[in-house]
Amino acid sequence: MDTHLQRQKTIISFLGLGGAGRTMCTNLVDTHRQYIRCFAMDKSDHDDSNFQLDAISEVPPRSTFLVCGTYHTCVDHWVSASENSNPRVVVVGLGGEVGTKLFLKHLADERLAQTECVCFLPFAFEGTKRMAKAQDALIEAKRYTRKLRVFPNQDLFQGAHPKETFTEAFKRQAELIIEQVSLG
User: Fold this and answer.
1) How many domains would you assign to the chain?
2) Tell me, what DSSP letter sits at residue 108?
3) Are 115 and 89 in contact (CB under 8 A)?
4) Which of 3, 34, 127, 133 has its CA at 20 to 30 Å from residue 61's CA atom?
5) Which residues face 45 on adjacent strands?
6) Domain CATH code at residue 124
């Protein structure tokens, strides 16, 4: 897979919304740092003055990971830093509070128009209310996104080695996302 990304000189730019979006961005960067640009936010109540994790006042062209305080700051950095990236991908876990609300609130944002979207559905143990909220969000997402890829978290258990950790399973999922997104 690295050879495909190298051959295509592909840089994939991800916008992670909510805790699951940020976690997956972290896994994507960990597995393919040289091909990934990630911008993430996981709190809806931050203001711009608080974004200090891997924070920088200007996003250098080869920046790998930036955690932003507000939605608009994050998307502004994502759009400006990914002008030459193809594709641009939104990553969000559906069913929770922050990611689902941000995603639905800003789905019609013209800066997100016609992007690819990777959505994660809740684990079965997270309950039917979260799953129902996620399913409702998916229906709405289909109206606005160019391509929608859905990954049920429950599928992480399929094909897993008995001693595989959650961290290893999420990294395996990151590999699958990179493969699918990079190959179209």
Assistant:
1) 1
2) T
3) yes
4) 3
5) none
6) 3.40.50.1440
